[in-house]
Amino acid sequence: MSDVVTSILTAVWVFIPAMLPNSAAAIFGGGKPIDLGKTWKGRRILGDGKTWRGLFGGGLAGVFIGLAQMAVSLPFDPENLWGFASFSAGIFLLFLLSFGSLFGDVVGSLIKRRMGLERGTKAPLLDQYDFVIGAFLLITPLYWTWFRNIYLDGNGIFGLVFLLLLIPALHRSINILGYKMGVKKEPW
Ligand code: CTP
Ligand code: MG
Description:
By secondary structure, this protein is mainly alpha-helical. The protein has 7 helices and 2 strands, in the order H-H-E-E-H-H-H-H-H. Cytidine-5'-triphosphate binds next to helix 2, helix 3 and helix 4.
């Protein structure tokens, strides 16, 4: 396979633990909101769409999918685990990818509420990229060498561009699916 294709596949593959938590949060979510119903300047701090169950259910789902990904890669690529490097380095990385993405999602809702947008309303770009920014913000200071290896060096930049273009399309399709399955209130 060409190097560019390999870089693109790796860039998307290692980002699955950051992409899954949002959908998993919609499935596991509900119950007590993270902001406990509190308001700030007359508006909810985060709103009922951000719950503790969603945060931990979604976050752990991301960590578990990552562990499964590492396990399937082990017989084929014991040296590098298809981009996750090693179990010892990879486990903390999984927590950062997964909980980082949900942290970005929470900050996204915080911003939406400050802009006066009710829970579930559309916020183009913010809705699609808040979780990516959240995950990258936690990873870049702590795993800079890994990040540079996967997303910047060599053909990695093609992987990064591909991932950033893929995300809005994936976000849209998965949300339509979630809406049809009845786990999401709006198809966006
Ligand atoms: N969810 C949750 N807890 C989280 C994140 C998401 O319970 N930490 C669930 C909620 O049921 C939410 C659904 O997943 O409604 C979809 O998430 P999202 O689209 O991010 O939330 P919205 O309801 O659209 O709210 P917001 O306007 O704040 O984005
Ligand atoms: Mg939404």
